[in-house]
Each structure stands twice: as structure tokens, then as C-alpha cells.
Amino acid sequence: MTSSTGSKSTGSHAAGSKAAQLRQAAEDAFAEEIAALRTADDRPRPPNWQMSPQAVVTYLMGGRLDSGLDITPKYIGDRRLMEVAVATLATDRALLLLGVPGTAKSWVSEHLAAAICGTSRLIVQGTAGTSEEAIRYGWNYALLLAKGPSREAVVGSPIMRAMNEGRIARVEELTRIPSETQDSFITILSEKTLPIPELNEEVPAQKGFNLIATANNRDRGVNELSSALKRRFNTVVLPPPATIEAEIAIVESRVASLGRAFEIPAEPPGADQIRRVVTIFRELREGVTVDGKAKVKQPSGTLSTAEAISVVGSGLALAAHFGDGRLSARDLVSGISGAVVKDPVQDAIVWREYLETVVKERDGWKDFYKAARASA
């Protein structure tokens, strides 16, 4: 009886700890959906996959199961792109998700790994300081000094763990990793093995192992991939949302999720306010108004969908804690201005001109124009 009670207490504490996390991993946040898909899935599964490729795409794109459970869409866009990405991971080819900042590359990578192998946590974050050890392995120097080189002294990287366990590993910002370090992936991806020359051994990849990498194609100061490494990847380019309605749906969904996660005591933002933010971002990003009648100058920043989500989320917090709980133009203005004006000289001119030539003349936007002018 004591053992049983203790076990229940531990489980409850673990569940409480997860619920209190600022951000849950995809496999935890959507555990119910993943479990339901696995139960309902009767199609063939690649080795070590927890569901079939078709079920993975359903998890990403959304749908309704025979049980009546709705699977929430994780990606709003071209279904074929997700089918290509999933099919790639079912082969011996690694997957490179490429696109401008804010096109959900990391989000898709995380959910792919969670759906396929049950964990999205085997991840290497690419930076200018990422070393070869972060990709291959390091050493426990206390054991190394005490006993010399041994498997016991090897500290495996997330990639080594994925190879050992037959899981998906993730590499964020691949092109941020120095070129000489990037080459560490070539043997892993081509030979499906990780040599440990100090021990005259190697770690063979188990069935189910693969790698998802992400990279921005507009970043400055990136390290171009070698042709040898490029050949080891199938590349899927994730574009910005094709239509304004798709982008509004993405922002609305993610802001609702953030509002719940941060327990923001405000009303859900009205569709009209989200449409304003998305409209401004799309017009400045594309250099033309949504009706195609007027050209506008473009600022230096990318004005991605991710930034639009951030602007609406921040505005919601302002409305909750310093307003009446309803998102207004005043709550949005400072966030939009901060997103647009990255260069204090050039972008400030672009923003002022946009306000005077587009926003001022737009029906139903007088409140936004006045709030923007008041904060300028």
C-alpha cells in the first residue's frame, strides 16, 4: 500500500511539474492526439516509427478521427510539402527545412520528431560556437583520466543518442554552424555510422534514425553548405503563408495557444485586430497594398508571421494588465512599430510614410492611425 501511494504521489508531482512548465515539448502538449492517432492507425509503419506516414501528416495538417477527436492543425499550408517531408524521413535521406525567418521551420521540425519517434528533445542548436563534440561525442574527463579512453567515458551527443535508439535528431540553424564542423555530418548521413577512432570502434545507426535540419535562406553571415553535405539532404522550402486568410488563421491559433499557456486574463483578440496586424505586415513585406493599387516602401526587417504572433501576444498582455482586457489599436501600435523599425533612420521613414499614405486613408482604421501618430 505504501509503495502504491508513493508511486501515485510521484506521478502526480511529475504531471504537475509538466503542467507548470512555461513551454511544453510537442510530445507532451499534444500527447492525447498522438496517443489517439497511434491507436487508430492500422497502416504500415516504417521501422521504429510510432505511427504511419499518413498518420504523421494527419497530425501535422489536422483532421477528425473516427472516435470523434479533432486533431488540431500544426501547420497551415500546402499539404504536399508535409507529405514530401514525411516521405523523406521514411528513407535514408535527411531532411532540410529551408525558408525565411518565421515560416515555422523549427515548429514543423519539432512536431515531425514528436509524431515519428515520440521525442523532439534530441536537438543540436547551431551557432558560431557549435563544436564537433556537440555533433559527435565528448568525454567525461574524470573517467578519461582515471581509466583512459573507454565507452564508459564517452559522452554521447544528441545525434549519437538518436543513432543508438533509432530516433529522429534535430539540428537547428544548420548554416550557423562553422563549415569545418558541418562536415562532421557527412559520414553520419552517408555511412549511417559514427566512428570513435580513439577506441577503434563505431556507433552504427539503428533503423528509424534520421535527421531534420533547419536553415534560413536570408540570414546574413551564414556558412554555406558544401555540395557534399547538400547532397545528403532532401530540401523542402517552407514559404510564407500564401494568402492573408491563411496567415490570419495561423496567428489566431498560435495567439490563442499562447494566451492559455501564459494565463493572460484578457478576451481573445478580435478577428479585425488580427487582420490589421497581418495586413500591415504583408503589405510592408511585399511592397504593395493588399488590393494591389499602391506600392509601398519595404523596411529592412522580414516581418514574419512569427513576429505578427509576437505583436498580437504582447498587445494582449498590455490589454489584460494595463487596459480593459480587450485588445485595442493602442495595445498593438507599439509592438508593430518595434517590429517594423529595425533601422531607426531608414525604417522610421518607411513607417511614417506608410501611416500617412495607406493607413490614414483606409476606412475603419482611424483609431489605429491616431494611436500610431500619438506614439510616434
Task: Characterise the protein shown here.
The chain has 376 residues and is an alpha/beta fold. It has 18 helices and eleven strands. The protein has helices at residues 2-19, 26-29, 31-40, 53-61, 79-89, 105-117, 132-135, 141-147, 158-165, 179-182, 184-191, 227-230, 244-261, 271-286, 305-322, 329-340, 346-359, 366-375, and strands at residues 63-64, 70-71, 94-99, 123-125, 137-139, 154-156, 168-172, 193-196, 201-204, 210-216, 233-237. It has a five-stranded parallel β-sheet. β1 and β2 form a beta hairpin. The longest helix is centred in the first third of the chain and has 18 residues, at 2-19. It is globular and about 70 Å long. Residues 1-13 have low confidence and may be disordered.
